[in-house]
Amino acid sequence: MHTVLDTAGLRPGDRADAVRQFYRDTSIGTADIKIPVGMRNTMRMGRAGRLNLGTFDGTGTGTALCLQKDPVRDGERTLLLASQASGAVLVRQDGRQTRVGPGQLTVLDPTAPFAVRYHGAFAQATARIPRVALRLPEADVRRVTARVFSPVSDPLAALVAANLGKLVGDPVLRRGKSADLVVETTLRLLRGLLARQAGDPQRAREPRHETLPDRILHYARTHLADNDLDAARIAAAHHISVRYLYLVLSREGIALSEWIRAERLAAARADLVSPWLRRSTVAAVAGRWGFADATHFSKVFRRAYGMSPAAWRDESSGRRS
After folding, report:
1. Structural domain count of the chain
2. Is-above-0.90 flag for pTM?
3. Is residue 219 part of a domain?
4. Which of 1, 211, 226, 264 is paired with 30 by a 20 to 30 Å CA distance?
5. Other beta carbons less than 10 A from residue 120's beta carbon
6. Which helix or strand (DSSP H or E) is residue 78 part of?
């Protein structure tokens, strides 16, 4: 991601003009935009696969009005996916107004008028998505703009938000085959999320089936610290049988118990060298990640990483000193 606009060094009265000029001169292409006077903005942009990514943060109070006169730039219609990192905004489009808080998602159509109300400091991650990649009818698009999607209550929204965060935050992931894989998975997840919101069960069903392995692993990763995490619980959370759970994962080359153990070991390994957990014993860290027996934990840790947990902690401490 590279910084393309930073108005912090400009006089407050000149900032809105700088933002308007930036929008007119770039592929964003908004022909008429009104920005609250004095709002400070920093924008960064990058690309991963078919997605144009960005971060947008700053501080200010007022309403930004985007009044699009030239509806399509370079022959491609897009949707704007926004993930609110901090602060809250009010978005308005297609007769709806919605508050989007930290962690929540919303989508806007940048080729039609919309408004965003800011109050204080804020930060967002965004992705401009080719409309054709989502394969949604125009009527469905009109039904989903300016709505809020919460990762707390919606597994699909949680995965979309997690993948967007990875793409924005990891420069290595934005390049090569890894980027294509994450991007295409994200597009399938988003298509299912939006189709379900639009009331189109047929279009919502296909992405949910395609992304079942991703949703299973996301659930398991989220609950790694739970002692009762097992196949039965994971299957029940996704309304499938344990047998079908194993079948889905086997198609991806994943053995569930081995995967859980490896993920827990990796999490414990990171905790052992965390400066915030330096006073925790090896046994406490092991217990935190589902290893009730410290001796057993040491054995599997040594088998995975070639040294004991204590040696790993000591070696890492030596590198930091």
Report:
1. 3
2. no
3. yes
4. 1
5. 10
6. strand 78-86
